[in-house]
Inverse folding.
């Protein structure tokens, strides 16, 4: 067994236990393997385990992996996307997790050749270092995108603050869930908003307990090998 397989077994058990604690179905949580800090060969190990959702956060990293990796991978773009990079990225991905401004939405509307599944990124904790709209900006933002035919807002995404305090992390996830439910209840045609992208290596169990439907796991699953990438 490769390390990735071993890591996956361990993570899968933890996902299962967290789902049980929350009375949720296992199939309602999709694991995205974040491969941004690992090589193509490590990424191929991930695919061999059967994981088909991969996440990248830079245009060049995405391109490199896409060129080298075949098959039915679903690509998630999880990083800040510069408006000028939309053209080269948007038609290579299935999901965008970082929709955070109208100018980005306008450029996607112009460049996408099909409708894209997007998450609005929310900076629930209002940390300076993080991107995303504040909680109270999101509803107006979603309303403004009603006529963007190439954008389907499938849900909300957040990153928990850097803290050891589980209560703070849980509160952030809970507030995102509340906002997601509120928007979903409005039944806006291009904003079903049924999904929640939250939870990373350090906090995915809390995220699942609080309703995550997509978790984004990097280091706990694939490790880190930045140097290997630079050598490659
Ligand atoms: C890097 C990254 C992840 C994965 O983080 P790990 O802590 O390595 O699991 C998840 N989401 C986003 C937005 C990231 O940039």
């Amino acid at each position: 067994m490769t390390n990735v397989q071993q890591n996956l077994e361990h993570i899968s058990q933890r996902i299962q236990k967290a789902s049980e604690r929350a009375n949720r179905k296992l199939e309602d949580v999709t694991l995205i393997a974040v491969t941004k800090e690992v090589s193509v060969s490590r990424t191929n190990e991930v695919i061999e385990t059967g994981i088909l959702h991969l996440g990248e956060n830079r245009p060049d990293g995405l391109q490199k992996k896409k060129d080298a990796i075949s098959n039915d991978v679903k690509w998630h773009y999880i990083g800040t996307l510069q408006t000028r990079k939309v053209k080269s990225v948007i038609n290579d991905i299935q999901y965008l997790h970082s929709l955070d401004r109208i100018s980005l939405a306008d450029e996607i509307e112009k460049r996408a050749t099909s409708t894209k599944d997007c998450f609005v990124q929310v900076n629930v904790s209002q940390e300076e270092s993080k991107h995303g709209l504040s909680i109270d900006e999101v509803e107006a933002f979603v309303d403004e995108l009603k006529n963007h035919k190439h954008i389907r807002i499938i849900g909300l995404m957040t990153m928990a603050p850097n803290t050891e305090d589980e209560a703070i992390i849980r509160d952030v996830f809970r507030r995102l869930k509340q906002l997601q439910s509120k928007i979903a209840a409005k039944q806006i045609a291009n904003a079903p908003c049924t999904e929640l992208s939250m939870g990373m290596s350090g906090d995915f169990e809390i995220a699942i307990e609080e309703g995550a439907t997509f978790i984004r796991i990097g280091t706990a699953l694939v490790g880190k090998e930045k140097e290997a990438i630079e050598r490659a």
Notes: The mean pLDDT is 95. The chain has one domain: 3-226. The beta strands are 30-34, 53-56, 74-77, 95-99, 116-121, 151-157, 195-197, 214-217.
